[in-house]
Design brief:
single chain, 491 residues, mainly alpha, 21 helices, 76% helix
Length: 491
């Protein structure tokens, strides 16, 4: 139990090369699924431990922080570890079936190696308490992500991967420059130590520059408008199982970094008082919601449509952050949790359709409501959750967001948020109209329901979507306590 923080990262890291020893693709899949399940169990144990004993500090190699590297797990880390490992496990259930038609058989083992490395990187980013370690794990996650996207069967996947490589490298370089400047001013890389030393030099140009570089780099990674251009093609042309995993986790990890650096490392007064971050996030969040939702309405490829939807949802998350209140931060963390469930289910369902008909063009979805009723129902329920319909998880986080905005007397912003949800209604209705009110295409007459492993993955997340939309005790209590601790309040 003492070594859980490091086992969370070491197990998938060591498992990745071990995949080469397993000759049969099915064995590699079962091994990867087992490793992800172990990571999920560890994350649950860490959450229980944090809830019982408080913050966990783990020193690597017995070197005491700040001299040595520290893994530091608190309520916020624990929440993200749950999101990443749980989504990874559910997505992997359908992985073997999904990649049969999207990735050549001789590359299946490579896919699982890259998948486990990407999982390792995300878990490491969230677990570590060392700023330079964040960059190291960011590179592990990103490099494997570029390769996973490039495995897509269409040639556009290579361009999408290259585009993401360029933008991701720029973002990572900005983050590294910011970390280097902080080290120059403080002589430490430990986040807890940085938070104590930075206030003494907070008014220097070097710290302002470091903060700017880090924020811009992270915003590139989380696809905040207008730094989102890499995301639509990356989601549309990557293998379906990769899209489902990244849509549920990648932007969430970047938002975690944004919260960690603004709230913990630089501190609230510097981030939201000394610098105009509040107004900037509010404007960019609103623009992201309106522009991305409007763009989604006109997409002909459903993967593109929901990719733009993800950019809009990032806008909702950032607006919660911009309120600079416990309620707003609770809404942000809730939407992190709930959006992972929604988008994981939607992109898995789209993967099932791609498996059956070979593409994700909206016109080819005609009449599929009769051919694939369970899969199409999952897409519609996920869409209703994006809108924020009661009894779905999306309603809970949007309710908390509207409450936070009203508490701040930001009535015009609340109205624009509702307008953004109405735009979501339009593009969700476009899908409903095609799948339920149009006749099936001639080439789709033989299409049947998705394979059972797909349905297990999809409906696990759909049931979770309803569960966390009705019984909010786990999600709300966890996010509230994390938000309160970040504001320095006792839960």
């Amino acid at each position: 139990m003492l070594h859980l923080p490091i086992l969370q990262v070491v197990i998938p890291l060591m498992a990745a090369p071990l995949c080469l020893l397993l000759k049969r693709p099915q064995l590699v899949w079962l091994f990867a699924l087992f490793v992800s399940t172990v990571a999920f169990i560890i994350s649950l144990l860490l959450l229980q431990q944090v809830s019982t004993t408080g913050v966990i500090s783990y020193e690597l190699g017995g070197w005491q922080a700040p001299w040595g590297i520290e893994y530091r797990i608190d309520q916020l880390n624990a929440l993200l570890l749950i999101i990443i490992s749980a989504t990874s496990t559910v997505v992997l259930i359908a992985a073997q079936t999904s990649i049969e038609k999207e990735i050549p058989k001789n590359k299946h083992t490579l896919f699982y190696i890259l998948y486990l490395l990407s999982l390792t990187g995300m878990l490491g980013i969230v677990s570590t308490g060392d700023a330079f370690n964040v960059f190291v794990f960011l590179e592990i996650s990103s490099l494997s992500a570029y390769s996973l996207i490039a495995l897509g069967k269409k040639r556009q996947a290579l361009w999408a991967s290259f585009q993401y490589l360029i933008m991701g490298t720029i973002g990572a370089t900005f983050i590294l420059i910011g970390i280097g400047l902080m080290y120059q001013m403080t002589g430490t890389l430990n986040m807890e130590d940085l938070s104590q030393r930075l206030p003494q030099v907070a008014q220097t140009k070097t710290v302002f520059t470091a903060f700017t570089f880090i924020i811009v780099g992270i915003c590139l990674k989380l696809a905040l408008f207008p730094l989102h251009l890499w995301l639509p093609n990356a989601y549309a042309y990557a293998p379906s199982i990769v899209t489902a995993f990244f849509a549920a986790t990648a932007t969430k990890v970047a938002i975690y970094l944004l919260i960690r650096f603004t709230f913990t490392v630089f501190g609230l007064s510097f981030s939201f008082t000394t610098l105009p971050l509040q107004g900037l996030f509010l404007v960019l969040g609103l623009m992201g919601i309106i522009v991305a939702s409007s763009a989604a309405i006109y997409q002909k490829n459903i993967k593109h449509l929901f990719a733009y939807s993800s950019i809009a949802q990032v806008g909702f998350i950032i607006i919660g952050l911009s309120t600079n209140s416990v309620m707003g931060l609770t809404a942000t963390l809730l939407h992190l949790f709930n959006h992972a469930i929604m988008k994981g289910a939607i992109f898995l369902a789209l993967g099932a359709v791609v498996y059956q008909i070979g593409n994700s063009q909206l016109v080819n979805f005609s009449g599929l409501g009769r051919k694939m009723p369970l899969t199409m129902a999952a897409i519609v329920i996920g869409g209703l959750s994006l809108i924020g319909v009661p009894l779905t998880a999306g309603f809970i986080s949007k309710w908390y967001l509207l409450t936070a905005l009203i508490e701040n007397n930001w009535w015009p912003v609340a109205i624009l948020i509702l307008l953004g949800s109405l735009l979501t209604v339009i593009y969700v209705w476009r899908i409903v109209e095609v799948i339920y009110f149009k006749e099936p295409l001639a080439e789709n007459t033989s299409v049947t329901e998705a394979p059972i492993l797909f349905l297990i993955s999809i409906w696990t997340l759909i049931i979770a979507n309803f569960y966390f939309g009705i019984d909010t005790r786990f999600s709300v209590q966890l996010t509230q306590s994390a938000a309160q601790s970040l504001f320095g309040l006792s839960p």
